[in-house]
Amino acid sequence: MDALVPRLLVIGASAGGVSALQRVLGALPAALPCPALVVLHIPRDRPSRIAELLDPGSALRVREAEDKQPLEVGTVTFAAPDYHMLVEDEASIALSLDEAVLFSRPAIDPLFESAAAVFGPDVLAILLTGASSDGSEGVAAVRQAGGQAWLQCPEDAEASMMPASALQRAGADAVLTLDEICECLKEMK
């Protein structure tokens, strides 16, 4: 597959997502030419240590989102506990206390939908393992805006429901194993 060079990379994961994200973030090149935003379903009622956990294994800086934070090349930004993370405009993100989506806040759909609304065809969305249908509407929005969506192959995912639901609802530009996703990401420079 030819390496796509998006202006924004958005990634969503849930059940089984920590180990999948360790591999994906480890594959991102130091010269990744776009910001990366990640939603992982995490508990609302306690601090997240996900950025601290994943930062040492990434060539990029990994941090937790703050409201009105600029979108930064060379940085992977994770949604904070109990906040949806939205792409506000081409320069910044916003945190939202809007209602939970499919019992999750942060949720993947709001991130993917807002990324599609702002960046249109210049978004690459990657949906990984998970045990809900969150992400399906977001993948549909990205593809309808002309962006690309890569889904983890449901048979390869620790929890297949999330990528399978998105595939059924919206299709995909690529359905890849985690190894294949990582290989494609290594080429993005």
From TrEMBL:
The protein's name: protein-glutamate methylesterase
GO process terms (BP): chemotaxis
What Pfam families does this protein's entry cite? CheB_methylest
What's one GO-annotated cellular component? cytoplasm
Q: Which keywords belong to this entry? A: Chemotaxis, Hydrolase
Determine if Hydrolase is one of this entry's keywords: yes
- The organism sits in which domain of life? Bacteria
Molecular function via GO = phosphorelay response regulator activity; protein-glutamate methylesterase activity
Organism, per UniProt? Stenotrophomonas chelatiphaga
